Task: structure prediction
Amino acid sequence: MQPTAIDALLQETRVFPPSDEFVKQANISDPAVYDEAARDYEAFWAKHAEQCLHWFEKWHTVLEWNPPYAKWFIGGKLNACYNCVDRHAQTWRRTKAALIWEGEPGDERVLTYGDLHREVQKFANVLKSLGVQKGDRVCIYMPLIPEAAIAMLACARIGAPHSVVFGGFSADALADRIRDAQAKVLITADGGWRRGSIVPLKRNADDALRQTDSVQKVIVYQRIGGDYTVNMQDGRDLWWHELMHNAPLTCPAEPMDSEDLLYLLYTSGSTGKPKGIMHTTGGYMTGVTLTAKWVFDLKDEDVFWCTADVGWVTGHSYLVYGPLSNGATCIMYEGAPDYPDRDRFWAIVEKYRATILYTAPTAIRAFMKWGEQYPRKHDLSSLRLLGSVGEPINPEAWMWYHEHIGGGRCPIVDTWWQTETGAIMITPLPGIVATKPGSATKPFPGVFAAILNDKGEPVGANQGGYLVITRPWPSMTRGLWGDPERFIQTYWSKYDGLYFTGDGARQDDDGYFWLLGRVDDVINVSGHRLSTMEVESALVDHHAVAEAAVIGVHHDIKGQGVAAFVIVKEGYPADESLKDALKQHVAQKIGAIARPDQIFFTADLPKTRSGKIMRRLLRDIAEGRALGDTTTLADPAVVQALKEKYEGHEE
Ligand code: WT7
Result:
C-alpha cells in the first residue's frame, strides 16, 4: 500500500459503536467472551464445537499441536453435509428456504431444507454409482447455481473431498487443478450466464480433459439447454438430469473423522503453481459455523446474502457451509452486479427482503462510481447488517456503504481472513465492538494475532509490520495437497511456530488492526488472489515474449490492477496490437481476472547482481513515486531509463 494511503488510515478517527437496539437482539453481546476465550482457548473452542454442531461421536482430545501441524477434536466423528442439511430437515426447518436462487436471466428457484435433503442424497447416490468412494477427489466446475452447492454437499456426505474450480477460470487453469488433485470425477454444466453471454464451461472442460488423464466420468448439468449444444463423449460424459432421474432417494451421511479431508481449494501463492489448500471436517465446520452465527448475527428470520461465487473460499465458508450449518436462508445470485442494469443487487435485496449483505470492497467502489441513484431506486430497509471481505476497505467506500446501502443504521463487519484460515479471523462482533471505517478491528474470540518486525519482535502501536497468528485455531489449513515442504516454507519458516499471513498490518492505540495489503508477490485483484509469477509465466508462454515482470498497481475500483513490463523478442513489433494480443493470451491462459491492465514494453528489467528482478522499483515507477534504493542493482541506468520512458507514457 502506498505511504499516502497509510497516512490517510492513520488519520481516520470516526467510531461507530453498536446501537442499543442492535445490542439488545444480538446473538452475542457480552464482551466477557473475549476474556473467556483468552483464558482457555481450547476450552472455548471445545464448548462451541459441541454446542453448534451435531457429532456422531464426541472427540477424546481437543487439540494436538505439533507446529505447524494441528489436529482438532481428535477421535470425533461428524459429517458436514449432515450438519448443513439433515439436522435441519429433521425439524420445522424442513419447509424453510435454504437457498433462494436467482439466475442472471431472471429465473428463480427456492430450495427448502427438505428439498436440499432429497437432492443431496440422490446426487450422493449418483456419485457412488459412478464409483466415487471415500477419499476420492471430485472436481466441480460450475456456474453459481444450486447444483454447485448440492454437488459440494453430496461429496461431503460420502466423504469425497471436493475441489471447486471457479467457473471464470480457463481450461488450462482447470487442467492444472484436476491434475494436481488427480480428480476422478468432474462435475460441470453446459454453460453459465455472464452479462448476457454464455460461458462455455463444457467446452473448457473438454479442453482441460485433453490435457489430463485422471477423470473417468463427467457429469454435465444442463443450465443453458435450448439450441446450445455441447459435445458429450460416449462412456465418459453423462447428463445430470438423466442420472438423477432414477437415483435412490436415501443415502446415509458417512461418519467422518474430525481430521478427514473435507475439501481442497486452490489458491495462488507468491511462486509457482497454485497450491491446494486442505481443510478438514471438525475444525473447519466449528470455525465457519460459529463465525457465521456471531459475526453475521444469523437468526432464523434472516435472509443472508453472500455475493461470492462458490469458486472462492468465501463461497465455501459463507454461502454454503457456515450459513447452512446454522439453518439460515441464503440468497445465491448467478450473475454480474451490472446486468441488465447497475441496480441489480439492490433489486435483489428489495425483492427477497435480504437482511444481511456480505460483499467485497471492489464491488462497493464500483457502486460508488456508478452513483447512489441506483440503490436509491429500491427499498433497502430490510437490511440490518453489512459485511466486507477480500481486501482492505478504504474509509470512503466504508462510509458510502454505511450511508447509501446501510441507511446509516446497519453495523458493518469488515472481516479479514484467507483461504488458508478457513474462517473469519479478524472482525468486529457487531453487538460488542465499535467499528472504525477501514479497520477490521479485533481478532475473533479464540484467535490470537500479533504484528512483528523482521526480527520477530512485536512492533509498537501505529507501526507497520507483518501480521502473524500466534496460536492454532480450529479451521486452519492442515497443509498443501501433495506439497508439505512448500507449506512449511510459505507459512512457518519466517517465524518459528507462528503462522505468517503474508499481510502487512498495524494496530492503533486502541489495539484495532488495520490491514495494509500483501507483503509478498501476491496481488489482490478485486479481492481475488493472483501470483505475479503465474501471470509472468502466461506472458512468456506467448511466442513474442522474451521476459516479463508483473506487479500489482493501485487501481481505483479493483484495489489492485495487473501491470506487466515485457521484453519483446527480436523481430516482433512492440505495438498496440501486440499489447492486445498479450492481454488476450493471459486471459485465455488463466482467466479474465488475470488480464493485465497495463502492458509496458521495455528493453531491460531492473535486476540485482544476482539476477533477481526488483519489483519494488517497478512499483515505484508504475505508481509514479521517487525511486527507492537502487544501490543493489546490477545496472542502475536500466531503471532510470525505464522511469523516464514510463513517465512519458499514457494508458
Ligand atoms: C487475502 C486472502 C478471505 C476471503 C477472500 C480472500 C486479503 C481478505 C481482507 C480484509 C484486508 C483482506 C488479505 C489476505 N484480505 N480480507 N477484510 N481486509 N485484506 O481470500 O483469496 O485467500 O485472499 O485477502 O491480503 O491475505 P484469499
